[in-house]
Amino acid sequence: MSLQVITANRLDNGLAVFYNASGEWHTNISQATTLDDVEKGEALLKQASCSKNQLVVVGPYLIDVEEGEGGLIPMRYREMIRTKGPSVRPDLGYQAQ
């Protein structure tokens, strides 16, 4: 199994967020808990999907990542875009901050 992290979208602003084992959501993928075991991944995903978190985020799921020079890098192009923000409006998303 490759490395994975849990991601979702915040309900208040739609931004992609990443989950850590302390039960916190972060906009920086490097703060996410990495998982390399299927059972641990499913257990943390269940925790991320609890009713309390349903008031904060929508649709938590696991994504494949790899460790790079700058930290964690999503393996799929879709997830790369979600991590960096909109690709057509540089005045929005993470790059505008």
Describe this structure in words.
- The protein has one domain (3-92).
- The protein is 20% helix and 31% strand.
- The chain is globular, with a radius of gyration of 13 Å.
- The chain has helices at 38-48, 77-84, and strands spanning 3-10, 16-19, 25-26, 57-68, 71-74.
- Strands 3-2-1-4-5 form a five-stranded antiparallel β-sheet, sandwiched between helices.
- Strand 2 and strand 3 (25-26) form a beta hairpin.
- The protein has two helices and five strands.
- The protein has 97 residues and is α+β, with helices and mostly antiparallel strands.
Write a brief caption for the model.
By secondary structure, the chain is an alpha+beta fold. Helices cover 20% and strands 31% of the residues.
β-strand number: 5
> What topology, given as strand order, has the largest sheet?
3-2-1-4-5
- Supply the number of helical segments: 2
Oligomer: single chain
Percentage of residues in helical conformation: 10-25%
Quick one: overall form? Answer: globular
DSSP strand content: 25-35%
What is the H/E string? EEEHEEH
Mean pLDDT: 88
**Structural class by helix and strand composition:** alpha+beta
Instruction: Give the biggest sheet.
Output: 5 strands, antiparallel
Rg, rounded, reads 13 Å
In whole angstroms, the N-to-C terminal distance is 35 Å
- What count of domains describes the coordinates? 1
The unreliable regions are none
